[in-house]
């Protein structure tokens, strides 16, 4: 079975595995206070052009989302998210379990807009009974979105502007950020994120590491006591140096960006094959996820050889599939998928 069902089906990049083996005889201070974490933090600050940013390493995306959101919000406040956002539909109520409501808005192909943010904020404060309602106090986006779409730099700047106008912190989920940065149709860079977001994180789990996300806190307001909150959420890894070693390897010479580009390049080959086969794409995506709408008979045939997700059922005879590439996707596996699409 050739797997295109997610971008974390593979082990870890060989250079990371080698580095972990090379350092296996070391003894390091625990809880992320070691030389490897320090080096990795310095590399990330340089890549983000954010020398004053705080950087923390957590194990996974849901852990990062719950820790950040609960750290920023007061008990009576909620987070604005597209209804397709990961925190809204793919985290088993993790945010709600911290006592905070996800305030869903109808995203446009997965993306949120300044108008949607303004409406939620203004409607709340215009309601005479607003003290009886959850107060919108944070905006959550991801790049790419859950539907594979990416934000342009002007779109991100406009979102940041409305957030600052309304006093709403902006958080960006970067679980797939490496693929979003490599996508066409967006000029967004890490320094842009550090400039426009209050907090964001750089995903490693889906981009070459065994596990790990690097949280970048740009707004000084949210730096104080953050390590206490990581510990409170079970995220302060005793052997934190294992996270530091992996991110040190990713960022010391640009490996992170190379791996993101590889995943996107293979996804673009799938995109071309889908369009060449005369199949429509449900979303116009330029990152590492592709969503062709195919006849159910073709979906059943493809499932004999390939693993993928059945994403949506737009009608009785067709299914929207999701093919997800990664840093580890082999060109020969994409060739096999292309051949199957050509055969129909």
Describe the model:
This protein is an alpha/beta fold. It is built from 14 helices and 13 strands. The strands form three sheets. The chain has a seven-stranded mixed beta sheet, sandwiched between helices. Strands 9, 10, 12 and 13 form a four-stranded antiparallel beta sheet that branches. Strands 1-11 form a two-stranded parallel sheet. Helix 6 runs parallel beside helix 7. The chain is globular, with a radius of gyration of 20 Å. The two termini are 18 Å apart.
Helix-strand blueprint:
Blueprint (H helix, E strand, L loop, with lengths): L1 E2 L10 H9 L12 H14 L5 E5 L2 H12 L4 E6 L3 H4 L4 H4 L4 E4 L8 H13 L8 E8 L10 H14 L3 E4 L3 H6 L7 H7 L2 E5 L9 E5 L8 H7 L8 H11 L3 H22 L12 E2 L2 E3 H7 L3 E2 L1 E4 L5 E7 L6 H13 L1
Parallel strand pairs: 1-11, 3-4, 3-5, 5-6, 6-7
Antiparallel strand pairs: 2-8, 7-8, 9-13, 10-13, 12-13
Helix pairs in contact: 1-11, 2-11, 6-7, 12-14
């Amino acid at each position: 079975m050739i797997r295109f069902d997610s971008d974390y089906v593979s082990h870890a990049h060989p250079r990371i595995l080698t580095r972990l083996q090379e350092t296996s005889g070391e003894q390091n201070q625990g809880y992320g206070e070691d030389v490897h974490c320090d080096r990795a933090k310095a590399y990330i600050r340089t890549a983000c052009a954010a020398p004053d940013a705080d950087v923390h390493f957590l194990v996974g995306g849901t852990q990062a989302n719950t820790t950040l959101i609960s750290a920023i919000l007061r008990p009576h406040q909620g987070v604005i998210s597209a209804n397709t956002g990961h925190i809204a539909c793919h985290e088993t109520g993790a945010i709600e379990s911290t006592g905070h409501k996800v305030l869903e808005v109808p995203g446009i192909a997965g993306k949120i807009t300044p108008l949607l943010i303004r409406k939620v904020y203004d409607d709340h404060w215009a309601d005479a009974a607003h003290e009886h309602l959850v107060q919108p106090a944070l905006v959550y986006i991801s790049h790419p979105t859950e539907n594979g779409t990416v934000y342009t730099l002007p779109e991100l700047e406009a979102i940041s502007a409305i957030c600052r106008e309304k006093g709403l912190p902006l958080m960006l989920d970067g679980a797939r950020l490496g693929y979003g940065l490599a996508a066409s149709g967006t000029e967004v860079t890490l320094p842009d994120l550090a400039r426009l977001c209050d907090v964001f994180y750089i995903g490693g789990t889906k981009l070459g590491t065994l596990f790990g996300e690097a949280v970048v806190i740009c707004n000084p307001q949210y730096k104080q006591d953050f390590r206490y909150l990581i510990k409170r959420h079970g995220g302060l890894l005793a052997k934190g140096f294992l996270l530091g070693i992996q991110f040190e390897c990713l960022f010391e010479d640009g490996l992170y960006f190379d791996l993101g580009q590889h995943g996107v390049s293979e996804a673009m080959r799938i995109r071309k094959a889908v369009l060449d086969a005369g199949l429509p794409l449900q979303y116009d995506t330029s990152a590492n996820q592709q969503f062709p709408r195919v006849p159910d008979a073709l979906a059943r045939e493809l499932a004999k050889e390939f693993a993928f997700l059945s994403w949506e059922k737009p009608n009785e005879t067709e299914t929207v599939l999701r093919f997800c590439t990664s840093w580890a996707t082999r060109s020969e596996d994409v060739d096999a998928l292309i051949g199957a699409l050509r055969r129909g």
